[in-house]
Design brief:
6-stranded parallel β-sheet; Rossmann fold; 3-stranded antiparallel β-sheet
Length: 255
């Protein structure tokens, strides 16, 4: 793929940043996973724009009307079961596993695709779709183990009779502050930060950038403009899978 001259220069500059970086922090959002077929629920025509869905996927609805909650949540879960990582996820895993770079990823996504791609240091700010927790006894279950119940429109129950809640941060749920503080530390330690596929408008995830070092480099790859574009060293309004793998490859080969 060929790029305009200025973009080619910018990619090469980012590759140089990457080559010399000792610690790389990543903040990823829905945009990195849309190339795997997962919709961006916060886009103008996304799922969260539908009022009935916003009201259903909440802690309040789960507690009061679990059957309504699972009517919508089961559709989301079942639509993601065959999703695979894309070139953006794989490029980050390559940095860590093939190039030996220290890479810490704080993701707003719940799809688990960073881990499937091979990334080892991943903080899931909004939880994940791999597990569910009994609201009565606290037992954790693997979500795939209750897939049949979701397919049959049933509310998944624990052996004790308690309702299982997906281990995701619903509207009305607090974040895991221990994990969030860990993400803050990663941002403060990194000399290079990538913001990938995130609008940087969702709090408190977007506040993580307030903890970065004054001398760290910031690279943003997102289809649309973000509030932090002016603070970034380089900004690419493009798909993550089109830009990041090229930066990673050039950092490795120097070509």
């Amino acid at each position: 793929m060929s790029y305009p001259f200025n973009r080619e220069q910018e990619i090469e500059a980012c590759a140089a940043f990457l080559q010399s970086a000792s610690k790389i922090a990543v903040l990823s959002g829905a945009g990195i996973s849309t190339e795997s077929g997962i919709p961006d629920f916060r886009s103008s025509n996304g799922l969260w724009q539908k009022e009935e869905v916003r009201e259903a996927i909440t802690r309040s609805c789960f507690s009061r009307q679990p059957e309504r909650f699972y009517y919508y949540f089961s559709q989301l879960f079942l639509s993601w079961t065959d999703i695979k990582p894309n070139q953006g996820h794989l490029a980050l895993a390559d940095l860590e596993n093939e190039q030996g770079k220290w890479v810490g990823i704080a993701t707003q996504n719940i799809d688990g695709l960073h881990q499937v791609a091979g990334s080892k240091q991943v903080i899931e700010l909004h939880g994940n779709l791999r597990h569910a927790v009994c609201q009565k006894c606290g037992t954790a279950k693997v979500m795939n183990g209750i897939k049949e119940k979701l397919e049959n429109k049933m509310i998944p129950l624990c052996d004790c009779g308690g309702i299982l809640k997906p281990k995701v941060v619903l509207f009305g749920d607090p974040l895991d502050m221990q994990e969030f503080r860990k993400a803050q530390i990663w941002m403060a330690q990194a000399d290079l930060i990538f913001c990938l596929g995130t609008s940087l408008t969702v709090t408190p995830a977007n506040t993580l950038l307030q903890h970065r070092r004054h001398d760290s480099k910031l690279v943003i790859i997102n289809l649309e403009a973000t509030p932090y574009d002016r603070e970034a060293d380089y900004v690419f309004h493009a798909k993550v899978g089109e830009i990041l793998p090229v930066i990673v490859q050039k950092s490795q080969t120097g070509d």
